Amino acid sequence: MRVEETEIFKKYFENLTDRERAVFEGGITLGALFHQFVGTPVSKDNKESLERAIEEAMKNQPCVYDIKVKIKDVGEKYTSLDGRMLDVDLKIKINRTIAHLKLEYIAEIDYPLMYVKELYEE
Amino acid sequence: MRVEETEIFKKYFENLTDRERAVFEGGITLGALFHQFVGTPVSKDNKESLERAIEEAMKNQPCVYDIKVKIKDVGEKYTSLDGRMLDVDLKIKINRTIAHLKLEYIAEIDYPLMYVKELYEE
Amino acid sequence: MRVEETEIFKKYFENLTDRERAVFEGGITLGALFHQFVGTPVSKDNKESLERAIEEAMKNQPCVYDIKVKIKDVGEKYTSLDGRMLDVDLKIKINRTIAHLKLEYIAEIDYPLMYVKELYEE
Amino acid sequence: MRVEETEIFKKYFENLTDRERAVFEGGITLGALFHQFVGTPVSKDNKESLERAIEEAMKNQPCVYDIKVKIKDVGEKYTSLDGRMLDVDLKIKINRTIAHLKLEYIAEIDYPLMYVKELYEE
Which residues pair with B29 in a beta bridge? Predict the structure, then answer.
């Protein structure tokens, strides 16, 4: 049984709507992903294994329904993973509510932005 | 001007209520804090400087209104900061809505839980 | 060309013997590995993808000749990767000198120790 | 008693000269520092508390004799700490041998380089 399925866990979230819960869990997972993996050595040689490992690791987080990670602008020479290289699509599911969240670099504000792309009922 | 005050930033959040936005930003900041600092060497000698530095660092994150970090169970011997040692109170403010969020270790589920303690209008 | 093969890089290391250089680079890579990945969510489901991704990431670091990562004590329930779960064999090669380094948990001192297992000429 | 003063710890290092040991411990500490703190939110407001907290945290690591951390190119707007912003002087002491190590950005190779500036007897 996953931790989020336990009764003790659930009672901490009775004060939130499904939508609020979905964006809360999504925020945690995006913040966690960014700050866990920024700094990791990456080059063309390990780009794909790192993308898959980030996806698989974050699927452990509560309520993650689906996640797709792309690392952009990777060259021959290795570099430390910068948050601006991350492009993430994350789906969180709470009952029938799905939050589709995004982490992507927004050039106009020079910022790797985390936001909610869509919130819908399945 | 803080990044969250720019018009470009703001338009990404028009699809959320103030409550949803508050818990989303709170989730990001708690997930970020945990995964940034877990692993840091900590002993009685540097416990306080680390607590203050975590607070000051996380105040940079969008919409953080107040934050208090306590590191528990620190002994003479240094150890790597474990998420179960963290006790965090975080307040996020969106217009007049305040989300009071918490990260604390819950022994019954052996889990450092992030949850929303209170959501209220100022 | 890898960064460590450039002339500018090389001139910073003229003051070290091959043995000194080998253990210096090995220390960097072990310290980096530990503090980059501690905290990552891990369960039986993603243990292997994480082990492989850590190996592939750290092969980018200067002078890494071979690396094998094992994550121990992973259960059904996910947890944050703790340094005590890591068992790493790392080989660094400088000209004909090889340093075989180790990161493993030593119960007597309750410490995830990094040390040089063997230093030899190939 | 610090962990490095225990007999069990010491016996793992009998195969190294004092110089080798000094650069090994120095490598660990620089690799650890970089990968622990890269990604931390930093602006003018928290630059100094972060510099001090990094120094104090890393003094826990075995054999650290002195450390000075400077974070460069910090602006009004907050950013994630990038390894290229770090300027670190670290001294490791093993018996009478001191290794003075450096982490600094080298523009010619676009690389935050860790190297041994000086190795001497006190």
Answer: none
pLDDT in tens, C30-85: 999 999 999 999 999 999 999 999 999 999 999 999 999 999 999 889 999 999 99
Q: For B36, name the nearest residue in chain C, comparing CA atoms only.
A: C39
Between CA A41 and CA C57 the distance in angstroms is: 5
Rounded CA separation B5/B63 (Å): 9
* Interface contacts (C, D; CB < 8 Å): 102
Query: pLDDT tens, A8-49?
Result: 999 999 999 999 999 999 999 999 999 999 999 999 999 999
Identity at B71, one-letter amino acid code: I
Given a contact cutoff of 8 angstroms between Cβ atoms, the answer to whether D23 and D99 are in contact is: yes
Taking the domain A3-121, which CATH number applies?
3.30.1300.20
Mutate to test the interface with D, among A30, A34, A36, A38 (most CBs of D within 10 A): A38
CB contacts of A112 in chain D (<8 Å) are 80
Q: Give the dihedral of Cα atoms B32, B33, B34, B35; nearest 10 deg.
A: 50
Q: Residue B81 has which token pair?
A: 């900061």
C29's enclosing H/E stretch is helix C18-37
Angle (nearest 5°) at CA C29 between C25 and C32: 135
Among the listed residues A110, A20, D11, D79, the one whose alpha carbon sits nearest the alpha carbon of residue C115 = D11
What is the value of pTM for the model shown?
0.97
User: Which amino acid would we find at residue B100?
Assistant: H
For residue D83 the two structure tokens come to 């390894």
SS3 (DSSP) at A99? strand
ipTM: 0.97
